[in-house]
Design brief:
mainly alpha, about 130 residues, about 50% helix, flat
Length: about 130
């Protein structure tokens, strides 16, 4: 019987992927806090993994053509954040909010990593018979 890692990991691997991507987006917002007209971005789990409508399926009219899928826009579900109080230079980054979201995302990453680690440890024990 084959092991299905997708079922065994119960989505924790996808959550780690999402948390890593969100950390990069939030860090980019923090890095651009003083950039005029910079618009703060964020990403949600749904927008990252359920953006089927943004995919472009390439047509194939010959058996020698390569089948493929392309992303439109290529932003992987990035959304603009609604500012609570934009600055005069048009920048919408709120440093307190960004730092709080980054810290929250970091804790959630650690939690997902811990769950995934325990899943893998359980699989190792089951395979080794201990």
């Amino acid at each position: 019987m084959a092991i299905s890692f997708e079922k065994a990991f119960a989505g924790h691997d996808k959550m780690l992927e999402f948390r890593s991507a969100r950390a990069a987006v939030l860090a980019n917002n923090i890095a651009n806090a003083d950039t005029p007209n910079y618009k703060a971005r964020d990403i949600t789990f749904d927008s990252m993994f359920n953006n089927e409508k943004n995919k472009l399926y390439l047509s194939v009219d010959d058996k020698r053509h390569i089948n493929g899928v392309s992303e439109l826009g290529g932003d992987s579900g990035l959304l603009y954040r609604n500012p609570s109080q934009p600055s005069l230079d048009g920048n919408t980054v709120d440093m307190q909010r960004e730092k709080a979201e980054y810290a929250k995302n970091s804790l959630q990453f650690d939690t997902s990593f811990m769950f995934l680690d325990r899943k893998i440890s359980g699989m190792k024990k089951a395979l080794s018979g201990n």
